[in-house]
Q: What sequence folds into this?
């Protein structure tokens, strides 16, 4: 039900409007009347009407002045003015103020009903639009939460998290690729048990997320048991300054949350600043700091005595990552992992020369090198003067110096990774070869993923995954490259318009063609043609 206020110094007009509205319009109710501008302004502040029927010529504050004053506070109120013919100039002013319509006195019943129905239709549409906007905002927030959780999961679990993080960064608006991991642990002071479910954990999570996002650029993951994992963007190159700022931020968070939740004990563990490829190490550091936190409120990895992690678990984690990186030939990732792996070994005493040959780290690394050679052999990497499958173990066992062993190990891994990468790049399958030929021969046609898959006799899902894995791009990107390349060749002939070229290379929409061309070449087809002519 919409609220209508009628403002007129003639009682007969007020009574007529009330009578018509009550009998003819079901979704409007006259909730207040006024006989002058001052009354109208005061009444509007009390009832906030949806519609105001306003006379112009009234004693004291006139209708125009009243409309201006009411609109200062309630800009979305719909105004309809009532005017005698000789006051038409006033009516024009009112229309300039955004008044919906004006009615001439004496008020015509049909015109009044029509005008009010039109306004309620507009109000209904606006209300629906607001609901859609609210719904979209809610959906966006839910999607954002999912994306943030995906960002955190990519750090913790994904084999090739570097690529995924780049995509998430773009979507989430994270401009820099360095930051650190913060872990908040929640414990009930009375029971001394972790808080992992229920209203209390949700309230803490909401407060933590809101405060952290207000204070800094960050991504907050989901509640994991009794912990919340967050990534904080940080470009501070000074390790000490980073530590001080991170601890200060953590203490602020705990103080603010515990004011609202005094029965909860909160502790924060912080890892060091890392780039995307090494963020997992910041997480592991935060986990390690959490193990050493004891009764502290906040602890940074740099303040953990000894800096020695759970060696067995850490080695297993690094070993798994190294194997995944080897299988894809990701040399840069392998180097990062190897240096981290040897750092852990050194912390465990592997570089102690007296204990070198009997150290368990040496045995584990030898086993890892065996796995690396097996992967190479399974990929048909041929032997050469450097990479020999028969005597590499003997060669390793003969090394009696830690530094020599480390150098030999890293160089051998890098060599194997490079061989695997070359093999992967040169082994484009017959399916991909056939697919590329189909695209080259039929680029002018309406080519689809389903169509190519059908010709190749494989499922679209398998083909899409295979093409991406082997070429590093999807087939649409390749098709676009072929079409744009053909378009540029046609432009050199200088015989066709942009529109004609668009159709000749397989596009039906010149605007879409222009956007793709500009995206790939950095300039529009028209500008490209002009540059060739000049």
A:
């Amino acid at each position: 039900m919409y609220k209508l206020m009628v403002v007129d110094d003639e009682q007969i007009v007020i009574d007529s409007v009330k009578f018509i509205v009550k009998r003819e319009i079901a979704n409007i109710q006259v909730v207040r009347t006024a006989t002058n501008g001052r009354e109208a302004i005061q009444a509007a502040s009390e009832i906030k009407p949806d519609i105001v029927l306003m006379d112009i010529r009234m004693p004291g504050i006139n209708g125009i002045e009243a409309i201006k004053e009411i609109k200062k506070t309630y800009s979305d109120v719909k105004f309809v003015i009532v005017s005698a013919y000789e006051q038409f100039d006033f009516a024009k002013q009112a229309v300039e103020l955004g008044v919906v319509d004006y009615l001439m006195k004496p008020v015509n019943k049909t015109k009044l009903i029509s005008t009010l129905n039109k306004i309620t239709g507009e109000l209904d549409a606006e209300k629906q639009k607001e609901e859609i906007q609210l719904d979209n905002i809610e959906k966006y927030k839910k999607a954002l939460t999912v994306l943030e959780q995906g960002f955190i999961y990519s750090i913790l679990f994904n084999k090739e998290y570097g690529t995924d993080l780049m995509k998430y960064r773009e979507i989430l608006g994270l401009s820099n690729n360095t930051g650190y991991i913060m872990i908040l642990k929640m414990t009930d002071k009375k029971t001394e048990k972790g808080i992992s479910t229920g209203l209390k954990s949700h309230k803490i999570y909401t407060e933590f997320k809101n405060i952290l996002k207000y204070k800094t650029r960050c991504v907050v993951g989901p509640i994991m048991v009794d912990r919340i994992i967050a990534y904080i963007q940080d470009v501070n190159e000074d390790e000490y300054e980073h530590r001080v700022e991170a601890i200060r931020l953590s203490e602020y968070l705990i103080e603010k949350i515990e004011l609202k939740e005094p029965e909860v004990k909160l502790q924060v563990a912080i890892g060091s600043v890392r780039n995307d490829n090494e963020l997992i190490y910041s997480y592991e550091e935060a986990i390690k700091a959490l193990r050493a936190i004891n009764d502290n409120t906040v602890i940074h990895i740099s303040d953990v005595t000894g800096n020695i992690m759970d060696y067995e678990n850490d080695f297993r984690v690094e070993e798994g990552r190294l194997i995944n990186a080897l299988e894809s030939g990701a040399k840069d990732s392998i180097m990062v992992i190897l240096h981290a792996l040897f750092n852990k070994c050194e912390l465990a005493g592997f570089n102690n020369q007296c204990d070198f040959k009997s150290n368990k780290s040496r045995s584990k690394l030898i086993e890892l090198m065996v796995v690396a050679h097996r992967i190479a052999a399974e990929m048909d990497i041929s032997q050469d003067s450097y990479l020999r499958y028969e005597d590499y173990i003997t060669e390793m066992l003969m090394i009696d110096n830690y530094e020599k062993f480390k150098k030999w190990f890293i160089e051998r891994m890098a060599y194997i990774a490079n061989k695997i990468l070359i093999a992967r790049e040169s082994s484009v399958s017959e399916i991909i070869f056939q697919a590329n030929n189909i695209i080259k021969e039929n680029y002018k046609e309406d080519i689809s993923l389903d169509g190519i898959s059908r010709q190749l006799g494989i499922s679209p899902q398998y083909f899409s995954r295979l093409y991406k894995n082997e070429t590093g791009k999807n087939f649409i990107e390749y098709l676009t490259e072929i079409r744009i390349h053909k378009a540029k060749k046609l432009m050199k002939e200088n015989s066709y318009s942009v529109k004609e070229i668009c159709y000749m290379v397989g596009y039906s929409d010149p605007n879409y063609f222009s956007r793709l061309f500009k995206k790939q070449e950095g300039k529009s087809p028209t500008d490209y043609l002009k540059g060739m002519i000049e």
Summary: The domain at 174-306 is CATH 3.30.70.270 (Alpha-Beta Plaits). DSSP finds 21 helices and eleven strands in the chain. The mean pLDDT is 81. The radius of gyration is 36 Å.
